[in-house]
Amino acid sequence: MEVTESVLMGDVALVERNLTQLRDHGMSVSLDDYGTGWASLSAIKRFPIDVVKIDRTFTAGLTTNALDRAIVRGVAEIGRVLRLEVVAEGVETDEQAWIAQDLGCTELQGYRYGAAAPLSTLPSL
C-alpha cells in the first residue's frame, strides 16, 4: 500500500490505526514521494512504514546537483539504519541508477526500467 505524505497529515490517530491494520494483515506500507511535502522523520518513526520512496525531484538532479545527492544519501542511510527499503523514483538513465545505488537506495523505479502499463499487460511482462 502506498501513501503520500499528505495522507499522513490528516487524522493522525486514524491513519496510524488503519496503516497498522493493513500491515498486520501482511501488507507492506510505502511512503510515496518522500521529501516533497511536510512529512518528517517523526512520520517515519510514528507510522508503520516499510518503504520510503524518494521523490523524482531529487533523483532528477543526481547527476548534476550535490545537494540532491546529499539528500538521497541521507534518506538512504536513515533507511538502512531503520531497516527500511529505500526506492529512488524517477530513474531515467543508467547514470542516475548507478548513483542512486551507490548512495544506498535499495530499489529503483522509473522509465529506465519501463513505463507504467495497464494491468491487462501484466501476464505478458
TrEMBL record:
SUPFAM superfamilies: EAL domain-like. PANTHER family: CYCLIC DI-GMP PHOSPHODIESTERASE PDED-RELATED, CYCLIC DI-GMP PHOSPHODIESTERASE PDEF. Residues 1-125 form the EAL domain. One of its GO terms (molecular function) is cyclic-guanylate-specific phosphodiesterase activity. It holds the Pfam family EAL. This is Unannotated protein. InterPro entries: Cyclic-di-GMP_PDE-like (IPR050706), EAL_dom (IPR001633), EAL_sf (IPR035919). Signal peptide: none annotated.
